[in-house]
Write a structure and sequence with these properties.
- The structure holds two protein chains of two kinds.
- By secondary structure, chain A is of the alpha+beta class.
- Helices cover about 40% and strands about 20% of the residues of chain A.
- Chain A contains 15 helices and 15 strands.
- In chain A, the strands form three sheets. In chain A, strands 1, 2, 3, 6, 7, 10, 11, 12, 13 and 14 form a ten-stranded mixed sheet that branches.
- In chain A, helix 2 runs antiparallel to helix 3 (about 235-255).
- The relative contact order of chain A is 0.10.
- Chain B is α/β, with parallel strands linked by helices.
- Chain B is built from 16 helices and eleven strands.
- The chains are: A alpha+beta, B alpha/beta.
């Protein structure tokens, strides 16, 4: 993990430590809803992806979507949880976008418990549980300031109602906004990798609530936490947690205490705001959902799902890092771009790891890159290494390899990217010097700054004359050699 | 006692109707019209229906007759008029639960049982009255006024399926469907002198039954004969993928084995349901039924189910708790009644205040309280433990007996208004029927003579889960031994 964020009070000098636990809701990528055959698709005309069960019409009954359970188990296994016998419960509260005025969720017997998530740097954050539930509809309030209070009327779209969700409850193991970002980013990679969710925070298919508290460094007790909602991007998450932590420190240092409450992140104002104050704690009157039966996945089924899981990002990082002789953090981007299989295969063919990873990181953020033939990729790195291709040429050849599938040698030939021999290069360099006498004089006499600028100019001219075949580093070396001799 | 409006079905039993209609001896339309004439004559006094579907029924009967003329067989209930409790969803037809809160709502789908009946050739004649949301034992808690007992219109028909029981007792339909959460089929069957069957929980799909208490609700038939009840069960029983609590197993034919008698069956008279609170005349009829079963070859003994009498208090926590959640959706947002108010929250409150009757509100409050943090363990949690005890005690009794026997209702039909002021005395009506709902087992009420007041008495046969085959065989024996109605009324 990143170093903990420590906020030192300017007035008291106390060092405050941040404690963060994240609750992530992700919509599961099923074809139909959690408890009915209505389509699970984003968008659509309001109230078109609905059926009697979605609307909670009198007499309708829920039936558990097997695919949603399977995806839920995939999530649990990917997070190293125990998958267990579980039950559904009703969470009762009145709200217009909730068709039955209760939500079917899992309460005291969740599907997955006690797991962990490995961050890109190899550290672990605990997962308390990951359970199934149904999403609500969406209200939009007309008139007033867009909130339910003061609105003239409200419209409700039930397309999202009943969409399967997995709620992943993390333990309060995170201690900096950057950790929170890494956690969510990693969780999203896992959900996408296992096909459980598309993980789009902007579309709301992945929603993050952050439980934030502060305590003096070294204090074992947890402080009073606030739940920060309405965080719609990783950037907002970092900002919101940072703001909230500092706010809590200010509150405590001013002699007040932090009230346990839900706070909403206001992206524009860059601050969190208290939600409507509730009279006492909500009492959801949970009880076992009598319309559903126990969900007890057989060990055989769980084993089948486990066998079908792809290699997860943490394992992929470890594998590539070992092959490349670097840390997992250094190959995180390659794994995130799903180019680690390519990189690994290329390195295994003997290509220089540093150059392979460099290309993956800087030159292959394009569609189709994963389809590159490792042997050809290795050949390209070889050409680069033996000086046959300059870095610039290699980049261009690589791009064409992705689009055309041709071999690097053939592409290089077609472009006339032959290795220039030294005498030919010297000829061009000398010709360029001769043709730009005044600049050359300045280059020779000038200070480092001036010379740095002019180096670019001369290299550019040589590149032009050589039709891009010159190696920039070789040109610079020659220029300095000529200057020393001048 | 007022003049009886009870009448035998004008065209005979469902079995007779279906046989003759399938054989082309009678038209479905002719059968229907005879029943509609009965409705026309006395429904004004009985008030069994919230809605009589005369036009729709005629169209359905005519369509059946066309199919029969074309050589098709519409099925085992061909041309049989059926009355449906008005908490069963019927596509495009108002379904009210006898509540103001569902005003104007027409379901966009049929309940599974409604589809099955139509698929078997039955003709829906109307939607019957009930205690609002099936909460009650007298059909007096209806937003549309009470139903009267055809045997004596000054008396209640029982409830909550009072309309369905009265419709059969008055000859408006040979069969009807009700729902039974704590006795809502069996108790009105007993009070109206008809057969009423509560199947094993999960045997009949609940899809399209508007929920009162989901873990207890079960749909079942009313009929004038045990054979007709078995015939309807043959049609409506079976697994439904739309109901997760539906039992995923094939079902036998209940009609086929009905005449096999009770030779060798062990039948236990439930001690705890024969003493305190049970009217002596009712207890006497139950003992006579036991004697009849013994005479037919069964072994009859005393069975103890100690937790049975605890059922009532457990039930009045569990059922309201589930109801408080099931009835939350009637909030004025999506369908039914809406009473406008300045804010959404106030609109919900105003709608529910105006839309629900007193008994429904009472149970919503009881249930909300029982589930509340700080009270859950003492009330709902404890009730669940009692439920476990009841299941255990029944299971123990069924180790010694194949079937159990008890009264259905502690008394015969009581007068309208008699118990409305005292909810507790009303609740006590369900003492014999509730344990079966809590255990999830099967039970049937069979008419057996009358009480001292000349009104019908029902005896209850109880069976373990999926024990309907033996239970119906015994019911047929009890039915055959029962004093005939004519003797009763004399």
């Amino acid at each position: 993990m990143s170093p903990p964020l420590v906020i030192t009070s300017p007035t008291t000098g106390t060092d405050w430590e941040l404690v963060i636990g994240l609750e992530v809701h992700a919509e599961l990528a099923t074809v139909t809803k959690m408890f009915s055959g209505a389509p699970n698709v984003f968008g659509g005309e309001p109230n078109t992806n609905i059926d009697p069960v979605t609307l909670g019409l009198p007499g309708s009954l829920p039936v558990v979507n097997r695919r949603a359970v399977e995806l839920g188990i995939r999530v649990g296994l990917a997070l190293h949880c125990s998958v267990r016998r579980s039950t559904f419960a009703r969470k009762n509260y009145f709200y217009p976008d909730m068709p039955k005025d209760y939500q079917i969720s899992q309460f005291d017997e969740p599907l997955n418990v006690d797991g962990w998530l490995e961050l890109p740097d190899g550290t672990r954050a605990g997962i308390e549980r990951a359970h199934l539930e149904e999403d609500t509809g969406k209200s939009s309030h007309q008139g007033g300031d867009g909130r339910i209070h003061g609105a003239e009327s409200s419209l409700v779209d039930y397309n999202r109602a009943g969409v399967p969700l997995i709620e992943i409850v993390g333990r309060p193991d995170l201690h900096s906004p950057e950790d929170a970002r890494a956690y969510v980013s990693e969780l999203r990679s896992i959900l996408v990798a296992i096909g459980a969710s598309d993980g789009k925070m902007e579309e709301g298919s992945m929603r993050v609530d952050a439980n934030v508290s502060v305590r003096p460094v070294g204090d074992g007790e947890l402080g009073t936490r606030c739940e920060v909602k309405n965080v719609n991007s990783l950037r907002s998450l970092v900002r919101a947690i940072d703001y909230e932590a500092r706010r809590q420190v200010d509150v405590i240092e001013a002699g007040d205490r932090v009230h346990q409450e839900t706070r909403h992140w206001d992206e524009e104002a860059g601050r969190t705001r208290a939600g409507r104050s509730k009279e006492g704690a909500e009492d959801y009157r949970y009880f076992l959902e009598p319309d559903l039966v126990v969900l007890d996945p057989s060990p055989e089924w769980v084993a089948e799902i486990a066998a079908d899981l792809p290699v997860l990002p943490a394992a992929r990082r470890a594998r590539l890092a070992a092959a490349a002789g670097v840390t997992p953090g250094e190959v995180a981007l390659a794994v995130e771009r799903k180019l680690d299989d390519l990189a690994l295969a290329t390195i295994e063919l003997g290509a220089e790891p540093a150059r392979v990873l460099n290309h993956v990181e800087h030159n292959l953020a394009v569609d189709g890159a994963a389809g590159l033939d490792p042997a050809q990729f290795a050949a390209l790195v070889g050409l680069e290494l033996d000086g046959s291709l300059t870095a610039t040429q290699a980049k261009q050849v690589l791009a064409e390899m992705v689009t055309s599938g041709s071999s690097p040698a053939a592409i290089a030939r077609a472009h006339g990217f032959e290795a220039m021999d030294t005498s030919a290069l010297e000829g061009i360099v000398d010709a360029v010097i001769a043709g730009n006498e005044a600049d050359w004089a300045e280059f020779v006499a000038g200070d480092d700054k001036k010379r740095g600028k002019l180096t670019g100019f001369f290299v550019g001219q040589v590149m032009k004359e050589s039709k891009g075949q010159a190696d920039g580093k070789a040109v610079t070396a020659l220029l300095n050699q000529r200057r020393d001799g001048a | 006692m007022s003049a009886s409006l009870a009448a035998a079905p004008p065209q005979g039993t469902a079995a007779e109707i279906a046989r003759s209609v399938r054989a082309g001896e009678r038209s479905a339309r002719e059968v229907l019209d005879a029943h509609l004439a009965g409705v026309e004559a006395t429904e004004g006094e009985v008030h069994a229906f919230n809605l009589v579907l005369a036009d729709e029924a005629r169209a359905a009967a005519d369509a059946l007759d066309v199919r029969i003329a074309a050589g098709e067989d519409p099925g085992p209930l061909a041309g049989v008029p059926v009355a449906l409790k008005d908490n069963l969803c019927t596509r495009g037809i108002p379904t009210t639960c006898s509540s103001k809160i569902l005003a104007g709502w027409r379901p966009p789908y049929d309940a599974t049982v409604v589809q099955l009946l139509a698929g078997a050739g039955a003709v829906t004649i109307g939607k019957t009255n009930l205690d609002e949301f099936a909460m009650g034992s007298s059909t007096e808690n209806s937003a549309f006024g009470p139903t009267r007992n055809p045997h004596d219109p000054t008396r209640v028909p029982g409830g909550s399926s009072g309309g369905s029981a009265a419709a059969v007792a008055a000859g408006f339909a040979p069969i009807s469907l009700g729902s039974d959460t704590g006795g809502s089929i069996r108790q009105p069957a007993a009070l109206c002198g008809v057969v009423g069957l509560k199947p094993t929980y999960g045997l009949v799909s609940r899809y399209g039954l508007i929920a009162f208490a989901s873990s207890l609700d079960q749909i079942g038939p009313f009929a004038t004969t045990v054979a007709d009840a078995a015939l309807v069960l043959d049609v409506i029983a079976g697994h439904d993928p739309h109901d997760s609590t539906s039992i995923p197993e094939p079902v036998p034919s209940y009609s086929a084995t009905l005449d096999r008698g009770v030779e060798g069956l062990r039948i236990g008279l439930i001690t705890e349901l024969m003493g305190e609170g049970i009217a002596p005349d009712v207890a006497a009829r139950v003992r006579e039924a036991a004697a009849a079963l013994e005479a037919a070859g069964a072994t009859v003994g005393e069975a103890s189910v100690p937790a049975a009498r605890l059922g009532l208090s457990a039930y009045y926590l569990i059922a309201p708790a589930e109801a408080s959640s099931n009835l939350a959706r009637y909030d004025g947002v999506r369908y039914g009644l809406r009473v406008d108010a300045p804010t959404t929250g106030e609109m919900m409150t105003a709608t529910r205040t105006a839309g629900f009757g007193a008994e429904v509100k009472r149970r919503i409050m009881l249930g909300t309280y029982a589930l509340s943090a700080g009270y859950y363990d003492a009330y709902y949690g404890k009730a669940l433990k009692v439920r476990t005890l009841i299941i255990r005690d029944f299971a123990a009794a069924y180790e010694h007996f194949d079937l159990l026997l008890s009264p259905t209702s502690p008394t015969t039909a009581f007068a309208l208004g008699d118990k409305t002021a005292d909810p507790l005395s009303m609740y006590l009506n369900d003492v014999c029927t509730i344990p079966t709902n809590l255990s999830g087992d099967a039970a049937i009420s069979v008419p057996f003579g009358t009480g001292d007041d000349g009104l019908p008495v029902g005896v209850q046969l109880l069976a373990p889960a999926l024990g309907e085959v033996a239970m119906l065989r015994a019911a047929a024996v009890v039915e055959a031994a029962a004093p005939r109605n004519a003797e009763v009324r004399a």
